[in-house]
Amino acid sequence: MLLTALVLGVFIPIVQATTGTANEVRSRVVVDVYVAERTSREGVATLRAALERTPNVKGVEFISKEQAFERERRRNPDAFDILGRNPLPDSFRVTPVDPGAVDSIVARLEPPKSGLSPRPELAAIDEVRNREDETDKILSATSLVKLLTAGLAALLVLASIALVANTIRLSLFARRREIEVMRLVGATDWFIRWPFVIEGVFVGFMGGVAAIGLLTLAKETLIDPLSDRFALLAAPDTIDFPVLALLLLAACVAVSAVGSGLTLRRFLRV
Amino acid sequence: MRSSPTRAEVERSLQADRRPAQPAPTTSVPVVELRNVSKVYDGGSIGLDRVSLGVERGEFVFLVGPTGCGKSTCLRLILKELEASDGQVLVSGRKLGEMPRKKVPRLRRNVGVIFQDFKLLPNRTVYANVAYSLEVIGESRQSIRRKVPSILRLVGLSTKLHNYPDELSGGEQQRVSIARAFVNHPPLLLADEPTGNLDPETSIGIMQLIYRINRTGTTVIVATHDREMVDKMRRRVIELESGRVVRDQRSGRYRPDESTSEFAIRLRGELGVGVEGHPN
After folding, report:
1. Which residues in chain B are closer than 8 Å to A177, comparing Cβ atoms?
2. Do A185 and B137 touch (CB under 8 A)?
């Protein structure tokens, strides 16, 4: 139990960090909306307002012709010096609330293909692009990472439940004579079960406490000095330690209660 | 059972506790009734095959037959440790098949059980073993302190309260288990081969004790394969063979009001066991 609790304790921050990173990567999913040339200032303003009102839109950033030119020239000075004039249009960079549903934004904003006239407030849109390849890659990679960590976490919980169940089974076996006598003289189900449930929860609790102790030790001796010196490699915000400790304890107790409950249900038919 | 003071004490307490035996009233509900009960185990082997029988209040019944004939199945059905595959098991008029799980502990509190292997807890003293059965059903401490010594006096173990089971002889251990089964004064007492592990003289002592409990009005069902003992005791005998009742001999020629000492003397005489106090 101590071991699984320990693994769980190390695992919770890892899950946090990976999902944090995954989310951070996901936030790079954006939609670029290019504004048609010769659009008036008012046209741009209406468009901005319309974009902000679109569902699933978190933020809208205006990038003017000049800003875009500056950016691109910095990236590729030679090519842009040759050009002499600025071919880039004004654009908006739209960040979605849910990166997974970014396609819905594109579908909403894109100008209709055939002759149908677009909605008036979106008339100023020339083109909508969401760098499809990149977006797809980001989305699939991050969701895979999330899925993997979730799977590992589930396995870990199952292992802990099995472990506690086994512990309880052993103690049931060790005390089978007593249980038999209790049943024969007419003890109620719960009178017989309680000690074992309490034992299971206690085992879980002690495991949790020990794991927290070890984690504290590791944190104090290893992580803290390191992070002081290196500002831990772009550490995404991990969980606070006291919160982690509480969470871990609660998880251990819950898991062992479930484990002992299952065994009792199976092996203690009165 | 070795020391004569203990024996004398038993006899005294037996006399003191003697009550007029109640003749079974024919109109009342039978304590135990099996109606066409069959029990087929999961493996397909047959425990009981359409057995019907009734046991009246205050009766002393022997269940006899060879190993595997269904004696223990019968007792376990009455305790609702097993469910009948077919038919109805009734205990004081209640159908066990329809009894919810919650009520099972209540049933078992009203049925005392004795086993061949005693089922005592080895890490508890005699006193604690008997007290344990009362603690488990939530009896108060005062009543435990009152009941346990008196029941142990009754079975003749008042000098061994603080001994552990492995310090006692087989007969004494069985007395402890009888004390545990009877400390609550249940109206029904089941015994599964109570003398199976004991020598004849000790067996007589145990049977005498069970008979004595029966004389207080408790219905007793004893499963045994000791035919000789059964025949000599001249009580009702139900014989089972491969799950069927082959003989149900209602109370042979015996005096229902025979006192326990008379009973023991007769039994000793008929079994040819040595004089009282000098086993073999």
Report:
1. 119, 121-122
2. yes
> Count of residues for chain A?
270
Distances (CA, A) of B192 to B63, B67, B156, B222: 9, 12, 21, 6
The answer to whether B270 touches B234, Cβ cutoff 8 Å, is: no
B236 phi and psi, to 5 degrees?
Answer: -60, 135
Q: What is the mean pLDDT of residues B199-223?
A: 90
Strand partners for A125:
A35
Query: CA of B69: how far to CAs of B61, B64, B73, B74, B245, in Å?
Result: 16, 9, 9, 10, 9
Domains (range + CATH), chain B:
4-21+57-80+101-271 (3.40.50.300)
Q: Classify B241 as helix, strand or coil.
A: strand
- Predicted ipTM? 0.71
Which tens digit of pLDDT belongs to each residue from B145-188? 999 999 999 898 989 999 999 999 989 999 999 999 999 899 99
CA–CA distance, A199 with A104 (Å, rounded to integer)? 53
Q: What is the pLDDT of residue A26?
A: 72
Residue intervals in chain A for CATH 3.30.70.3040: 30-129
| 8 Å CB contact of A186 and B136 | yes
What is the phi/psi pair of residue B30, to 5°? -65, 145
Dist. CA B60–CA B249, nearest whole Å? 12
Q: B180 touching A, CB under 8 A?
A: yes
Looking at this protein, which amino acid is placed at residue B259? S
CATH number of A30-129: 3.30.70.3040
Cα(A104)–Cα(A107) distance, rounded to whole angstroms?
5
Residue pair B2/B159 in contact (Cβ under 8 Å)? The answer is no
8 Å CB contact of B105 and A184 = no
Residue B259 in this model has a pLDDT that exceeds 80: no
Angle at which helix B141-154 crosses helix B126-136, to 10 degrees, equals: 130
Q: Does A178 touch chain B (CB under 8 A)?
A: yes
Nearest-Cα residue of chain A relative to residue B136: A187
pLDDT value for A13: 67
- pLDDT surpasses 80 at A185: yes
Three-state DSSP string of A46-87: HHHHHHHHCCCEEEEEEECHHHHHHHHHHHCHHHHHHHCCCC
Please indicate whether, in this complex, the C-beta atoms of B105 and A270 are within 8 angstroms of each other: yes
Q: A221 touching B, CB under 8 A?
A: no
Which residues of A are less than 8 Å from B132 in CB distance? 181
| Residue B93, both tokens | 């008029």
Phi/psi at B80 (nearest 5 deg)? 60, 35
Matching residue, tokens 């082959």: B246
Q: How far is CA B165 from CA A163, A172, B123, B135, B160, in A?
A: 35, 22, 8, 19, 10
